[in-house]
Amino acid sequence: MKIRTLTTIGLIAAGLAGYSGSALADAAAGKATFEANCAECHEAADFKGEDAKELQGSIEQISAGQMKHKKAFKLTAQQAADVAAYMASGG
Ligand code: HEC
């Protein structure tokens, strides 16, 4: 449990430092983005089992202002992928 927490913190710290070595979705980084921008209105559990790629597409459209959404937000493609991975995992 403790090791897992430290790993998560490490990944978030890497994200804050501008780490962009991999294009792979990073659910741990997505969790931080979700909690900062989305958790006020959403619960990740509501998206559990949804297709991460489709979610990512919706999030990118919202971010680009092409899909109606309660609140405007701007995420990079990497952030959209990360948040989608986190949401689809159910948190
Ligand atoms: C101020 C409240 C609010 C915030 C903050 C918010 N949302 Fe939403 N979002 C809504 C509401 C309301 C809906 C429509 C009802 C629903 O599907 O829950 C919605 C719908 C969605 C949908 C579903 C769109 C579809 O295909 O039907 C996605 C995906 C989504 N939000 C992603 C996000 C992400 C990612 C963030 C954070 C970066 C975020 N939202 C932040 C209120 C919010």
Notes on the protein architecture:
With 91 residues, this protein is mainly α. The protein has a single domain (2-88), classed as Cytochrome Bc1 Complex, Chain D, domain 2 (Orthogonal Bundle). It is built from 4 helices and no strands. Helix 2 packs across helix 4 and helix 3 crosses helix 4 (77-88). Bound molecules: heme C. Heme C is lined by residues 37-38, 40-42, 55, 58-59, 69-71, 73, 75, 83.
* Count of beta strands: 0
Helix content: 40-55%
Small molecules in complex: heme C
Would you give the CATH topology? Cytochrome Bc1 Complex, Chain D, domain 2
What is the helix tally?
A: 4
The portion of residues forming beta strands comes to under 5%
- CATH class categorisation: Mainly Alpha
Please give the largest β-sheet: none
Secondary-structure class: mainly alpha
What is the total number of structural domains? 1
Q: Kindly report the average pLDDT value.
A: 85
| CATH hierarchy: architecture | Orthogonal Bundle
Which outline best applies?
A: globular
Low-confidence stretches: 14-22
Rg computed from alpha carbons, rounded to a whole number of angstroms: 13 Å
